[in-house]
Give the backbone structure.
Amino acid sequence: MKEFVFYNPTRIVFGEGKTSEIGKYVSGQKCLLLYGSGSIKQNGIYDRVISSLKEQGVSFIEKSGIKPNPVISFVREAIDLARKEQVDCLLAVGGGSVIDTAKAVAAGFYYEGDVWDYFINKARITRALPIYVVLTLAASASEMNCGAVLTNEETKQKFNISAEALFPRTSILDPTNTYTVPRRQVANGSVDAIVHVLEGYFTGTYPHTPIQDGFVETLVKTIIATTRKIMESPTDYDARANFMWAATLALNGLTTAGIGKGGSPNHMIGHSLSALYDLDHGASLSIVLPAWLKYNQQTLARKLTHFGQVIFGQNDAAATIKAIEDYFHEIGAPIRLSEANIDRSEIQKIAENAVGLARKWGLKSYTQDVIARILELAV
């Protein structure tokens, strides 16, 4: 096992009814409450959150309208509002898009320049407002990590930030909050969580990582099994609970601790699909992953075969990739660019866009030509 430092200070409060306890964990006096399209007002989550804040004497202002692919213009507006209202903490009620937005607002609150500077490595995050979370969509694991991804609409870049100050202080994980999540978003979350763990599983450089591999394989089996149950019975509490916790564990640092240097090439390419075409994050990954695996099939043959045996009962690399594609199609996730209405003629444009993130992440082997060849396998 490669040497590592594991640090994760986020308190997780898990279980049915825990949403109503968020107020007692918020240490601030005045919160900026952030959420998406307003579905939390229809399913009762908003009322439970507000009641809890009021019971604990926490005042708040709110800003809604965060998109599934969150954008930097909203963050700038929210920073201005937070400063004007002199808030001292942020409460994100939603999924990854809302939490990532809150992290960017928290970082930008104390910064005199443009918050996008953090995303292009022009400035370093050293201070942020405290962040609290009520999770409503299991997928991103942003509720238990220190990263965030947003799109700059002007430059068409979907870039990330990461800093210790961005770990949420407390995250409420109440599986009942996900009962009304649409099937499309369940599928997106399933794909996202699976690809989160497979990035390190297939790119980690240390040769012997049985603990981490075992974590990944158990998480993938759990995600697939619970996704199928949720599709059949949306209010199956155990299925929702196990899916939610698996998605959180998929990107909280646990599965990659000790694997050596790895990378996230699928996310790198997928982010360009979302930045250019506003494609759902999960859908971008379900298109890219099989193509990336095909491109690397010979190099990854041994591990692909092992993964296929453990997860799908398959005995070779090609059959494993086909089984992954079949699962994505089963849950309604696209596996071809054409299924997302993206023409083959767009490949060079996507590859050119993705190179920027490849450079930022140090993925030097991913030239525009290499990325284009991977995308050709997704036609």
Observations:
- The chain has 15 helices and eight strands.
- The domain at 11-177 is CATH 3.40.50.1970 (Rossmann fold).
